[in-house]
Please model this.
Amino acid sequence: MSTAETWTVKRLLEWTTDFFKKKGIDMPRLEAEILLSAALKLKRIELYTNFETEPTEPQRTIFREFVKRRGMGEPVAYLVGFKEFYSISLKVDPNVLIPRPETEQLVLETLDILKTFSIHSSPSVCDVGTGSGAIAIAVAKNLPQSVKQTTIVAVDNSTEALKVAKLNAISNGVAGQIEFLYSDLLTEVTEIFDVIVGNLPYISQSEYDILPNEIKNFEPSQALLAGAKGIEVIERLAAQLPTKLKPNGFVLLECSPMIAQSVASLFVTWNNVQIIKDNAGHQRLVVATRS
Model:
């Protein structure tokens, strides 16, 4: 960025969009807007009413640092400290995986299942490997009217991730609806649930090795890498389910399209086993009912 040029909001967006395009960033204009709005402490829509405004030097310094770090691969969500998910804002940092749009399908399917419960019931839900708390919080904020007394337990084996999840529950007004618990999968959980949902690590070592650097170099490997096959963590959870899920209870698991059939085969003796595709048409969720 030349110091002689007048760096209005409009010009900063143009320059940064072009720079991000050259770096091969998928959504260069959107990311430029997100970073500039964060640097200026404005909503994205407000950038358009301030096109001819010239940010202050301290604001430009913050923005330049954002652009530099994004150009080196650091994810936008970590730079600005939050990510939108299922119409809620979640704090994220390198201790937690950045929530993905495909995981919204897992929330939607969970809510649809909760709608099937009787108006007088109080179904219990466990979010295994909660990370930022995305699934548990989205479910808590969007519960069907008939099951407002739902018990939600969110577990993770990272104390740092649980700190982030608790802050997100507070900021989204659902802290009183969710119990956060440190546990390696369901090892420390004593309750038996109606619904168990999870977006657990499901990336194989070979897949992990070829992930984009902005994922592999910045996001927590323990939230991504499952092992040589990619199914190892889900296999461990499946072995625990018979003692943690009620008869006729539901399990919903996000997985890679490469292992969807293998995950479904873990529930061959269960009822109503389904593989559900995401919006891109990829096999993404496995849903089953305990017999």
